[in-house]
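new request in #modeling-help
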Amino acid sequence: MRVRRRNPDRVDEVTGPLDVAALLAHLEVNPTTVLVILDGNLVTSATVLSDEADVEIRPVISGGAGPSRCHDCRGPAVIEEPRHRSAWCGEHFVDHVHRQIRKAIDHDRMFSYNDRILLAVSGGKDSLALWDALLTMGYGADGLYIGLGIGGYSKRSGRVCAEFAAKRGVELITVDLQEAYGYTTPSGSQASGRTTCGVCGLSKRYVFNRVAVEGGYDVVVTGHNLDDEAAVLLNNVLHWHEDFLARQRPLLPATGPNQVRKAKPLYRLSEREMAAYCVLRGIDYVVEECPLVDGNTGQEHKETLSALEAGSPGAKAQFLFGFLDRAEQLFPRRDDATAVALGECQTCGMPTTAAVCAFCKQRTRILVDLQGDPTGPAAAARQLPIVSTS
Amino acid sequence: MRVRRRNPDRVDEVTGPLDVAALLAHLEVNPTTVLVILDGNLVTSATVLSDEADVEIRPVISGGAGPSRCHDCRGPAVIEEPRHRSAWCGEHFVDHVHRQIRKAIDHDRMFSYNDRILLAVSGGKDSLALWDALLTMGYGADGLYIGLGIGGYSKRSGRVCAEFAAKRGVELITVDLQEAYGYTTPSGSQASGRTTCGVCGLSKRYVFNRVAVEGGYDVVVTGHNLDDEAAVLLNNVLHWHEDFLARQRPLLPATGPNQVRKAKPLYRLSEREMAAYCVLRGIDYVVEECPLVDGNTGQEHKETLSALEAGSPGAKAQFLFGFLDRAEQLFPRRDDATAVALGECQTCGMPTTAAVCAFCKQRTRILVDLQGDPTGPAAAARQLPIVSTS
């Protein structure tokens, strides 16, 4: 059979027939870190693959073995989720994902049906799946895509987001870093000497908030999932970053003017669940990973936690949810009296604890290096229209 | 050259000459997890090994590359320690180990020169190295060896401890579980249905304390090192075991009568440092690991942390020491008013929160299964002499 694998893309020829479990064992692939897709459908471990089969093994992280009947209707299952000791058919798996999102929204009082929601979309599985879910569940969510200027990867990501929005007739706001601020993630990193992830993260957080403030949105929503949050938590605990631990919450309230609250409704769902949701809902997403983040610490921590999860399903969720249950007591949020007062950035007017905000400082440094001049397309930022809507 | 490796024991033939770094790369061995020993001496990464060389690669976990001159005297170094960005000659490495032990003893006020110290020795590198260090540093420490009945492994361990004590003319107390309590770790595990590690741990903790109380010792000292403590910490954090986190300290004070305080003076030193100390001081120890603990969670967590350490030297210490710095605030010890009152066990008189202590309950269950009778050699334990001194 033909076996397609991703990151990097490659095709192996394997002699069949073989069941999925045997194929994965043969390829030394941890079943809990992949989806197996045959003719566009998800298949489970006991499915026998013929010698003529054309199979895709899609990396995702988390999941595996178990029963093969749907937990809800007892029909044939298409996905097993050891953490829940369950399997589901496609329809009821989608219900399961919606239930977990509901639970997150309700438990943390993230937003209501009346709120104007701005969803940060990257073109990856998590944010597009979340967009689909929020729309299906009756929430009014506009998308925000930031063009980071990472070559073909950014082009493909932007196209996928635009196609998603067009197909569903929903609004997509696009901000191109180069057009709006005069640099891309790679050029900004080179000019400032900061890591690409550092430049990218600061730029995205700033643009999310700014677009939300200027557009009158009530909440910024991101697609961070259980694996993302658990990996960040592991890193924060290994270094005992108390300040970060005090801010690691599924809902971060606004702490002053010109700030919009942030919510992560996918924190109860794994990467694997989100990838499966996309396959089942026919959502086309960019499977390739950002070419600039290869081998970073977050990825390492995800692998560590996946190894743990393979030996003891649910370990990842126990780690994250156990933290969240105790977080207010162990690492209290300091939004109130003890917090440093927020002022307005002299350059852009966005909230900051200094005279000029970290984003404007970084941008000035980048523009001076790139063009010997600290003024770029949006230097007089408050006057310029920085968003274009699809 | 002949390359001897351990756990499992094996010998490879490798064509020389090669330097140590190239040899380890060839064998795909992470240099930070082993010591390389040539003719009984430690050698560093740039040492060239001839085709006739007879080399031992001894697994230990932690350490690696760096300068090759002694940090203290600039003479040729025999061991590099990336965490300290240092290397040492044999003499000054021994000083370094003594300094770290001093720092632990002083910082946590573990014990004084007047205290009667009971050191739990297993025959492994950590406890024998600690015994050597304490005696060298002027402390009066008697050894306590517990015969666990794990076949040849226990026989070899007991012999190594007895030889150490005889050579230095110090006292070794030996308690044989079978003789004193009527079961071994394997038979007790089979009879009770508990894991061998569970039966072993409960038995050892009990005997440590009881021998210390009955012998009038001031403190029980164990050889837990930085890797041990960091691995336990990782497990406790992944599961958010708040009670265990509240008790994970280098010094645990006695909280009632018939209890002796416990100290871990090696918590600032890695496994690799302790193994190197043994080689440098000519201490013969049992390199083989207990055959019953293969592949347990502690070992997994050690590997996780070693992978992290390889990428960022000092990560392990930062994790453990960062915790200890914050432990009293985040996970306060409950030795005082809020602690459950300790009473005397009805069977043996040792401290317990129940009518009968966990050890006596376990022992009764084991003896009933083994011989259909809850009385064993030490059932009337308070009257029986349970210790024999060498």
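bot summary: The longest strand of chain B covers residues 141-147.
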